[in-house]
Recover the amino acids of this structure.
């Protein structure tokens, strides 16, 4: 057993043998920014003030050799080797913010709906207590017996009293788990989910205009965030720009129209990249953004999609005045596999 000390707050977290620093923090109910959980994105990078740790396998693009020399590490893969490990982490960030994840929570597939030629939506109901999560978080789903390793999928709905969870899974030709979901997983089957994970969450205290940018099944966490904000009576403008290749790749248009009708502050702006259609924008989001939002200096910006899409949108948003602290991203890495935590009680903040 090791001890993780957060500097400068002085807060301490116990880390069991074999656990990563990120896993230990999440079990204790603390939020450390993270995304891929596989040493590939660099979002969980922090400076280690003292103590020894095993960094594990990480990509140089996520943690450069120079950064390693300066003492930085990726906490999603780092495992303490010394009795105490001190990491640099601001007092404000050291507040409990997440529900500790739980492994192998049982759900039944109550429905599956084809949304596009390559995206299927799963509706899942819990057999036991509902999973407690924040809008924008994700879970892992898989079935090793069927050759489908656990993979990360964002939750596409806000928390509901009945505990229903909605997932939107894109068919990936080389993806064992996505093929299992599309070709084998049927209505009525029992599946096991682990989670929740991730820090792609909004701050309920922030009262600024919100801009959501999504492509493909990156729409899922955006739907969760938008539903939660609108449900709680968020009054500032909420704009959702969704990028698709062709009209057949657009989905949830009915829900978007309902939100626009019910909530006057919500606007849906779909854009197509491979065909033109009356009434719709045309072009990639970074190309059309300036005409729609010439000044983003006061906006909270949420971006979800492939890493390349996210990077391009971040650059475009910053060019229009968006600030780093107001930009939140979720970039999907195909082989990302979070290390699931053992069963633990749920702790709200």
């Amino acid at each position: 057993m090791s001890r993780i000390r957060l500097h400068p707050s002085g807060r301490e977290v116990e880390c069991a043998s074999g656990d990563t620093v990120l896993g230990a923090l999440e079990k204790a109910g603390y939020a450390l920014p993270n995304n891929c959980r596989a040493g590939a994105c660099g979002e969980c990078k922090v400076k280690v003030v003292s103590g020894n740790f095993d960094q594990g396998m990480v990509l140089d693009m996520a943690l450069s050799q120079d950064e390693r020399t300066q003492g930085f590490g990726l906490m999603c893969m780092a495992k303490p080797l010394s009795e105490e490990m001190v990491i640099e982490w601001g007092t404000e960030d050291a507040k409990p913010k997440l529900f500790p994840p739980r492994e192998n929570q049982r759900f039944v597939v109550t429905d599956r709906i084809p949304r596009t030629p390559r995206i299927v939506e799963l509706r899942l109901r819990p057999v036991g207590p509902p999973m407690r999560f924040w809008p924008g978080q994700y879970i892992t789903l898989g079935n090793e017996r069927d050759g489908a390793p656990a993979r990360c999928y964002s939750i596409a709905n806000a928390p509901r009293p009945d505990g229903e969870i909605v997932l939107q899974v894109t068919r990936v030709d080389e993806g064992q788990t996505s093929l299992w979901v599309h070709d084998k997983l049927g209505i009525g089957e029992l599946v096991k989910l682990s989670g929740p994970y991730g820090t792609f969450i909004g701050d309920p205290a922030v009262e600024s205009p919100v801009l959501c940018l999504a492509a493909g099944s990156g729409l899922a966490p955006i739907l969760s965030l938008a539903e939660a904000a609108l449900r709680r009576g968020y009054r500032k403008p909420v704009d959702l720009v969704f990028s698709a290749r062709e009209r057949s790749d657009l989905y949830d248009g009915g829900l978007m129209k309902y939100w626009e009708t019910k909530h006057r502050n919500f606007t849906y702006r779909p854009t197509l990249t491979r065909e033109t259609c009356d009434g719709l924008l045309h072009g990639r989001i970074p190309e059309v953004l300036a005409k729609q939002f010439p000044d983003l200096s006061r906006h909270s910006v949420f971006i979800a999609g492939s890493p390349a899409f996210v990077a391009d949108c971040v650059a475009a948003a910053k060019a229009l005045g968006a600030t780093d602290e107001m930009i939140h991203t979720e970039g999907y890495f195909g082989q990302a596999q979070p290390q699931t935590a053992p069963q633990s009680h749920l702790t709200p903040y």
Summary: Residues 2-94 form a domain with the Ubiquitin-like (UB roll) fold (CATH 3.10.20.30). The CA atoms of residues 138 and 155 lie 5 Å apart. Confidence is low (pLDDT under 50) at residues 339-349.
